[in-house]
Structures are given as C-alpha cells and as structure tokens.
Design goal:
The chain is of the alpha+beta class. It contains 6 helices and 27 strands. A 4-stranded antiparallel beta sheet has the order 1-27-26-25, with no helix packed on it. Strands 5-6-7-8 form a 4-stranded antiparallel beta sheet, with no helix packed on it. It has a 4-stranded antiparallel beta sheet with strand order 9-10-11-12, with no helix packed on it. Helix 1 crosses helix 4, helix 2 packs parallel to helix 3 and helix 2 packs antiparallel against helix 4. The radius of gyration is 26 Å and the shape is globular. It starts with a helix and ends with a strand.
C-alpha cells in the first residue's frame, strides 16, 4: 500500500505540475499575442491617427469600431458582429458603402487575416467590460440661479435647428432649420417676424454673418453626409434683409464647397475687401480654406489645411505682429488644435497646439482670458459621439477643457469639466462679476439617465473654480446649437438653445427619441434675470 500511495502521489504531483505548465504556457502565449496585436495596431492604425489605448471604449464598442476600421484595410468580413443588434450591424455596414462611395476602399486586402485577428484580439481583450466613468465630477446643482426658461416651438414637423444666432443691435435671433432648409427671424420676445425664408438653391444654415442689412449665410449642403465629399454640396449665399425676401433673393457667392461647419467673414489681408475662411468638415475629404476676394469680384481659394473634420476657426493676432493668425479645431481621425501663424504675403506657418485620439470628438472652441493675465486662453469642447460606435457609449473624456496661455504657443490644460456628449460652449460674464462664466450644451448626453445633463451653466468663482448649475426644464431638450447675447437690451447676457431632433446617435434609444420629437422644446430662451 505504501508503494501504491507513493505512486499515486507522484502521479498527482506530475498532473499538478503539468497543469501549472499549461497555464503558464497559455499565459505566455496570450501575452505574446497581445504584444503582437499592439505592435500591429501601432503599425497599421497609426498611419491614420494617433495610437489609442484599448480603455477608451468598452468591449462591445470596440467590436463595432473595428468593423469600421477593418474596411480601411480591405477587410469586408464582419461576421464576428453576428451577436450584435441589427441597428449596430447596419451602422457598421453603412461605413463600407461610404468608403466605396468616396473611392478609398482598398481594391485588395492590406493585412492578413491572422494579423487582423491579432489586432482585434488586442483591443477587445484589453478593453474594459463597461465604459469608464469620469473621475471627480462635481455634483450638479439642479436649479439655474439667474435664468428664466422660455420654451418655443416653431414648426409642426420635427426640427433640426442647425443655427441660432443673436443680433444684439437689431434684437433679433436668426434660426436655421437644416431639415426644412429655412432661415427664420425671431424677435426678442420669441415671436417670428415673418414666414420662414427659403431659397432657390436650398439653404441648410450652419452659420451667419450680418453686416448692416446684408446677411452672409453658410449652408452645410448635406447635413447627414449622404453624398461623396468631393461633390461639394455646401455654399455661401448673400441676402439683403431689408428688402422683401423671395427664393430668388439669395445670391450665391461661393459654391461647390466641402460640407461646411463654420465660416468667418472678414478682411484677412487688409485689402479692404471681405474674404471668407471656410471650415470644410467634409467627410472622408475636407479642408480649411481662405477664399480671398479678388479685384474682378471673384474669390481665389487658398487651402490652408488639407484635413477632413475641420469644425471651427477663428482669427486672432497671437504673436502681436499686427497680422491676423488663424486658430482651427479639427475632429475626425487627426483630432487636434492648430494655429496658422500669418507670415504675410498670403503665407501661413502651421503650429500644432495639441493632437488627440480619434474618439475625442472635438466640436467647438472659444477664446477668452480666464486667468486675467492679459493673454487669451482657449476653451475647447469635445463630445461628438456618432463616429466612434453605434451605441452612443458614454465617454469619461468628453467635456470641456480650458487651456491656459503660457506664451510662445504653449497652452496647458488646467481645467476639465466632464460632460457626456458636450457639443457647444460659450463664454460671457453672465453674473456681471467681471470674470468669464461658461454655458455648455450636450447633443449626446447619457440617454439612459433619468436626468440627462443637456445644458450646464458654470459660474466662475475665480482661480479656475466653477460651480455647475442646470435644471429639469432644460434637460429634456436635445440641443444642437446655442448662442449667447443681450437679446432684449437690458444689459445682461441671455442664452438661446436650438433643438436638433434626428435619430443619429440614438439608435439604441429610439423610444426616447420618438418621445423627444413629440414633447421636447424646439427652441429655448434662457432669459437672464440679473437686471
């Protein structure tokens, strides 16, 4: 019996050792596969954007995102998404059609099946099960201390308010509806001054510049990007607001532009003629262009940045040389903030302030001096959530940031307010205490929350300390656009919000979407009651 027990013990030890060796071998093999996958991701993915960490998205989202990314490498098989809901598979499949429409889908597979498996394994295995939540988010105060809310509906059909713009001199608010292709004018009481204006060439307004009675209107041309980028669906039109406006009143100044997100109207080169700086967001292709006004009444295009996803630009003399520089925010793959330093003679030098990974979703920025040192700082918003995955996954890095100017084009992030789906932010001294406060809206909030944060007022308490306020009255809107200004001439700053009720970003929450279409306000004035 002793010999038999000893033999059994030896066999047991051998089995345990074998099992441990098997576990260690598999662990080593797994680690080797993950290392290979990471290296391959850096090799293939980094040719289009900055390297990304798996923790920026949860596993479910990565599976969908990789379906889209695979198309860029000629990978058509997305059978691994078979257990995803139909809307997610449709969303991913549609991206293949977009790349083919744009002429960039590879004519052959650019990566082996095994290497593609290793890349997918790396991102999915190393990503969290659920989306990471933001750290140290301040508790919201659910009341607005200085604003009264006035909801307004202006259409019997669902609206996509692509423009709200306040004209303080005229006490008017310009309203653009990208679905109805109209421009409307509302007075300071919320009453419309006429029926909505339409044009012979339909306008889908995203920006407006009014000089005296002349309005320059930027039309995106293709709101949901159903056309190839290079078809040039966008245009800029001019109309005299003092006259009786009919569809043929709109004069086309620039046509055949990339899908436009933003427009600046100014004399950039000091020749006493108005020029246009156009943020051509596009789709797969896009750019930032300066259209210089020429002596014969036409415009000469200067392409300043050949990247898609340009969302906004502004002019400012950053180096005090008397020449206007251009600051530009880019989303899409090569997300980042850049300054084009004016060298004179129609030449610009590109200076990159920062770049970030492609899920950041930059949407907006403004310039303001937040620390009162006499140098302009930058408020940057990121929260576009439609391109990363079909689930509208909450992202802990969405929100608004303040980059403080340390001179010589060095801007450091010194404030971050997390906000899911942040879209537009505006600065003004709303409480008249001589410092810039902030209002920020969200187009992609946490739709699963009973209290969605769709608008927040950040009261500046000094030293980059802000106290956040919102209210139940504004949280039911899906705010696509926003402007601030003194609409009623009482010397305090009001807010106007424009609702955009489209299913984009809400395919996982269609019941809520249909409810918002029925019940949510189309516009809202937040009237400052300070004075």
């Amino acid at each position: 019996m002793k010999i038999k027990f000893s033999s059994f013990k030896s066999v047991l030890i051998l089995l345990i050792v074998s099992f441990l060796i098997y576990i260690i071998f598999n662990k080593i093999n797994d680690n080797v596969e993950l290392m290979k996958g990471r290296n391959l991701a850096n090799q293939y993915c980094s040719s289009c954007h900055l390297p990304v960490s798996p923790n920026i998205l949860p596993k479910q989202s990565w599976e969908s995102v990789l379906g889209y990314m695979g198309y860029w490498l000629g990978i058509e098989d997305i059978s691994y998404l078979s257990d995803h809901p139909e809307f997610a598979r449709i969303n991913v499949s549609a991206r293949q059609e977009i790349l083919k429409r744009e002429g960039v889908f590879p004519d052959h597979q650019l990566i082996s099946d095994e290497d593609w498996r290793l890349i997918r394994n790396y991102f999915v295995s190393e990503s969290p099960e659920f989306a990471l939540e933001p750290n140290n988010k301040q508790e919201l105060n659910w009341f607005l201390p200085i604003f009264n809310h006035e909801p307004i509906n202006y259409s019997s059909t669902p609206v996509v308010t692509t423009l709200v713009s306040i004209n303080e001199d005229k006490k008017n608010i310009y309203i653009g509806d990208g679905f109805a292709a109209t421009l409307s004018i509302m007075d300071d009481t919320g009453s419309f001054l006429s029926v909505p204006f339409t044009a012979e060439k339909p306008i889908y307004p995203v920006d407006i510049h009014v000089d005296q009675n002349i309005a320059y209107i930027a039309s995106i041309g293709d709101l949901t990007a159903t056309q190839a980028s290079k078809t040039g669906p966008a245009h800029i039109a001019k109309v005299d607001l003092s006259k009786n406006i009919t569809p043929d009143s709109f004069e086309i100044l620039l046509d055949g532009l990339y899908r436009m997100a933003d427009m600046n109207v100014l004399d950039l080169n000091n020749d006493d003629k108005l020029d246009f700086i156009v943020s051509g967001f596009g789709a797969v292709f896009g750019n930032l262009s300066w259209f210089e006004s020429t002596d014969d009444g036409n415009y000469e295009e200067h392409v300043l940045l050949s990247l898609p996803g340009v969302v906004k630009s502004e002019t400012y003399d950053f180096n005090d040389d008397g020449l206007l520089d251009i600051i530009v925010l880019v989303s899409d793959a090569r997300e980042g903030l850049h300054i084009l330093e004016n060298q004179g003679n129609n030449e610009f030098k590109l200076i990159t302030i920062f770049e970030s990974h492609p899920a950041y979703g930059h949407t907006y920025f403004e310039l303001a001096d937040f620390n009162k040192d006499g140098s302009v700082d930058i408020l940057v918003v990121n929260g576009d959530n439609v391109d990363s995955d079909p689930y509208n996954t909450n992202k802990s890095y969405h929100g608004l940031r303040i980059y403080i100017n340390h001179n010589d084009y060095i801007f450091k992030e010194e404030f971050f307010y997390p906000m899911y789906g942040a879209f537009v932010a505006k600065t003004a001294d709303f409480d008249a205490d001589d410092d810039p406060d902030i209002v920020v809206s969200s187009f992609y909030p946490d739709f699963s929350s009973e209290r969605m944060e769709t608008f927040t007022y950040l009261e500046n308490n000094g030293n980059l300390n802000f106290r956040p306020y919102t209210s139940e009255a504004v949280m039911n809107g899906r705010w696509m656009t926003m402007d601030v200004g003194d609409i009623d001439g009482d010397s305090d700053i009001d807010v106007v919000l424009g609702g955009g009720y489209i299913p984009v970003g809400m395919f996982a929450n269609m019941d809520l979407y249909e409810k918002m279409v029925r019940e949510s306000p189309q516009l809202m004035i937040l009237r400052n009651n300070l004075y």
